[in-house]
Design a protein that fits this description.
4 strands; two-stranded antiparallel sheet; 24 helices; mainly alpha
């Protein structure tokens, strides 16, 4: 019976995705009408996965008859995150059906395929299943980013694909090394990596591959470009569920609790903290609400990455760090999804009496994200602070810096509120657009479900109480952020209108992508100039040779054919050189740390 439920949980969304994708391409109007009528039933294809999450035992399932044999199962990391993914993807699919258009079946199909890959990463208990699911999710997400078919969407897709391929190569290499060291099963992977002679290389590869998906600073460039390009429901799952797949990959395969790697762990902590605060600076100058939310996600994933770095520095804290990371990820997923989907809800329903209801819903989701007192977000931040209480970097207590991440999150949400208040409304009646009640349901779930899931499946030794000191510890970072936000967008624009009008042109979405694109363009122009000069020189030599009676037309033709053949391999040669450089650096790093 349980095996049947496992199979149905996978096949149901994939079959619905196949039907919707086929109906989208169909030329028969009748098929399209049928797809339109049944599109609203697509969220029901996730019901078997929800039942599986509730009913499946803790023992892993071994399917030796599938591929090379796979192992899946639920544990402390996977169960609560899988339920959050079910709820968030169902809400996103429902949001797509609120306003049907001719490409809605296509978007829902991609969302369903992404769900299968996303949940597969959570549930995988062997490295082959983990990599296959990660790859499926990453590739299917291309359809979410490019969906609008705008110039911005195509640019974001190109950048996402480049980083996705780099991520795939790094994860694949790390998984191969892990399996070779004896870590084929996820439960054996941390110890196998810890004992491997190539431990440093494996850890760097896994952090690079999964860090791209998790939005670790320096690898985050796709997030602020993909979110504004994708539809809001797609942005909700990109930020609320898919980035958590990168976190889960690191929690599964890195040698957390098995070996101390102080240098690597300290580097991760520094990068994570830098990203958590730099994302605030970059986000507050943006004018698109979804870009602001994207930088908010980068900041909060930096918070989570601090826990990963701490577990690498101090193996004895690994258990507490993993538990805290899961709790924080659970609370962040639904609330951030509610904020993304709330952007169009605000535009269409924040008028009249409904305005106050929408404000209340956005405020509730925002308070959960920043970790306000009595919210599930406060539990996640409390658990993280307790887990890393004794960790120091260069004499600084890391736990003393974490509350200021909540300050940055508050500043970004104040900026979001400022943008939404200035947004031009397009009022719609709830009968024509039933988004409001469905979105309010998602807000209610984001405020309540994390409490239930973490209490049942991720129990903590202690939770924040109602003592004045505990409540004040969760409140003062928000008050500072609120004060900075009000000061920045009420006083500063009046005093420095020129700065406030032009600062967003200095820090465009994508930040690091802009100089990289400019540098790549200059290199391409330089290469083209050199190629043209070489071609001119070759033609001159050929003319001289012909005039002197050396070679002839046959020689010229052979040279031209050789040049054409070499040109076909130019890009591959550049890629090969880049790979060789990376491998050389990794080998030097390994020798330096051995």
């Amino acid at each position: 019976m349980m095996l049947t439920l496992w199979i149905v949980s996978v096949l149901a969304p994939l079959l619905v995705a196949a039907v919707l994708a086929g109906s989208h391409r169909a030329r028969t109007p009748r098929i399209r009408v049928i797809a339109q009528r049944h599109l609203s039933l697509a969220p029901l294809s996730l019901l078997p996965a929800a039942l599986l999450t509730l009913l499946a035992p803790a023992e892993p399932l071994h399917a030796n008859w599938l591929m090379m044999g796979i192992t899946v199962g639920f544990d402390v990391v996977s169960r609560a995150l899988t339920m959050v993914a079910v709820l968030l993807y169902a809400a996103a699919i429902w949001a797509v059906t609120w306003r049907y258009d001719h490409r809605a079946p296509e978007l829902v199909a991609y969302l369903l395929v992404c769900f299968v890959g996303n949940a597969g990463v959570y549930l995988a208990q062997d490295v082959v299943m983990l990599y296959a699911s990660f790859s499926l999710m990453s590739l299917a997400a291309v359809g979410l980013v490019v969906h609008e078919r705008t110039a911005a969407a195509f640019r974001a897709t190109r950048i996402y694909l480049v980083l996705a391929v780099i991520s795939e190569m790094a994860v694949l290499a790390g998984v191969v090394f892990t399996a070779q060291a004896g870590g084929y099963l996820v439960v054996d992977a941390p110890a196998a990596v810890a004992e491997s002679p190539h431990r440093a290389v494996i850890v760097v590869l896994l952090i690079l591959g999964f860090g791209i998906k998790a939005g670790l600073v320096g690898l985050h460039m796709w997030l602020p470009l993909a979110h504004p390009a994708a539809p809001p429901p797609a942005s909700a799952v990109l930020s609320g569920a898919m980035v958590k797949a990168g976190l889960v990959g690191m929690l599964r395969l890195l040698p957390l609790g098995e070996a101390a790697m102080p240098a690597v762990g300290a580097a991760v902590i520094v990068l994570a903290l830098f990203g958590a605060f730099a994302a605030v600076v970059l986000g507050v100058v943006q004018c698109d609400p979804k870009v602001v939310l994207a930088y908010s996600t980068i900041s909060q994933m930096g918070f989570l990455s601090v826990l990963v770095g701490t577990a690498l520095v101090a193996p004895e804290l690994a258990g507490a760090c993993i538990t805290a990371a899961v709790i924080y990820a659970v609370h962040h997923g639904l609330a951030k999804g509610a904020l993304f989907i709330g952007v169009p809800v605000w535009k269409h329903h924040a008028t009249g009496l409904r305005r106050h209801l929408v404000i209340a819903g956005m405020a509730v989701a925002g308070l959960v994200v920043v970790g306000a007192p009595l919210s599930s977000g406060a539990v996640g931040k409390y658990a993280a602070k307790e887990a890393i209480e004794s960790t120091e970097i260069w004499g600084v207590q890391v736990a003393d810096l974490l509350p200021f991440v909540a300050t940055g999150s508050t500043v970004l949400l104040v900026r979001l509120a400022w943008i939404l208040l200035a947004t031009e409304r397009e009022p719609r009646h709830p009968k024509d657009d039933p988004a409001l009640p469905a979105w309010l349901l998602l807000v209610a779930l984001s405020a309540s479900v994390p409490w239930i899931l973490t209490d049942r499946w991720v129990p903590l030794d202690s939770v924040p109480g109602l003592e004045p000191v505990t409540l004040w510890d969760a409140t003062w970072p928000m008050l500072i952020g609120l004060g900075i936000g009000v000061l920045a967008w009420y006083v500063v624009p009046r005093w420095l209108p020129r700065l406030s009008a032009h600062v967003e042109t200095i820090m465009k979405p994508g930040d690091l992508v802009i100089p990289i694109e400019a540098g790549t363009h200059r290199l391409a122009m330089g290469a083209r100039f050199v190629t043209e000069r070489i071609g001119t020189l070759r033609d001159s030599v050929s003319d001289v040779a012909i005039n002197l009676g050396i070679g002839g037309t046959r020689t010229v033709a052979q040279v031209a054919r050789a040049e054409t053949a070499a040109a076909k391999w130019s890009n591959s040669g550049a890629a090969l050189i880049a790979v060789l450089i990376v491998l050389t650096v990794l080998m030097l790093f390994t020798e330096g740390t051995s």
